[in-house]
Design goal:
The chain is mostly helical. The chain is built from 6 helices and 3 strands; from the N terminus they run H-E-H-H-E-E-H-H-H. A 3-stranded antiparallel β-sheet has the order 1-3-2.
């Protein structure tokens, strides 16, 4: 899949709408799910969708007067790429550093710790 580029926040928000809805996606769907809440105009949404096509995140087809969009990169692939970059940049690829930071900023409950231990043990088997 190659190196996936980080998306600006507004484009990532649009991709979340794309990933959460069954393709094809239209600008009307994006406006309904996100644009109106963000107070974006239709031209703004169309510009963001066009940028996502240019960046290789979406493909587009024109059906009649309506332009439709399909994801080319899955949510899982994008999150995996972003997580790898984050771990490398901020934690020198140290899982322990990452978990320690999480623990210090948002201490888990006893139940969450038990779930984490269970998860870790299952991965080792």
């Amino acid at each position: 899949m190659g190196n996936i580029k980080k998306l600006p926040d507004a484009e990532f928000e649009i991709m979340k709408v794309v990933w959460e809805n069954e393709p094809p996606i239209t600008s009307a769907i994006v406006m309904d799910k996100l644009g109106n809440r963000r107070k974006w105009t239709a031209p703004t949404v169309l510009t963001l969708l066009r940028r996502l096509v240019e960046r290789g995140f979406l493909k587009t087809e024109k059906i009649g007067k309506e332009r439709t969009y399909y994801p080319l990169i899955s949510k899982e692939a994008y999150l995996e790429s972003e997580t790898k970059n984050f771990m490398k940049q901020y934690h020198k690829n140290s899982f322990l550093s990452f978990v320690n930071t999480l623990y210090n900023t948002n201490q888990p409950t006893e139940e969450e710790l038990n779930e984490l231990l269970k998860w870790a043990k299952e991965r080792r088997e």
